Amino acid sequence: MDRAGVGRVCLALPATTLDHPFGEHHDAYRVGGKIFAMVGESGGISFKVSDIAYEVLTETGHARPAPYMARNKWVNLPRIDDWADDELSEHLAIAHGIVAAKLTKKARAALGL
């Protein structure tokens, strides 16, 4: 998968928006105003995972703790194509779901989630 592929996957998820809060070369995908995945300028990707997935992915070396966001259980892949497309797509959908679930009931209802 490449940067455009990540965009297609993320923007296909319900109520997802794209913005560039850290400059035009950083894509931040949000649900309800909260970031669930971000592609950096150098082509790496970071995204939210569950507590268990964080432990498994980082301990096995499948991903590394995301800079500045590891305490919030985010992982980082230095290159988007480090994982198979279907595996990355599934993790992005899960990241979206984790972040969406933390929104208020009112916010979820307003977004149709």
TrEMBL record:
<protein>
    <submittedName>
        <fullName>Putative DNA-binding protein (MmcQ/YjbR family)</fullName>
    </submittedName>
</protein>
<dbReference type="InterPro" id="IPR038056">
    <property type="entry name" value="YjbR-like_sf"/>
</dbReference>
<dbReference type="InterPro" id="IPR007351">
    <property type="entry name" value="YjbR"/>
</dbReference>
<dbReference type="InterPro" id="IPR058532">
    <property type="entry name" value="YjbR/MT2646/Rv2570-like"/>
</dbReference>
<keyword id="KW-0238">DNA-binding</keyword>
<dbReference type="Pfam" id="PF04237">
    <property type="entry name" value="YjbR"/>
</dbReference>
<dbReference type="GO" id="GO:0003677">
    <property type="term" value="F:DNA binding"/>
</dbReference>
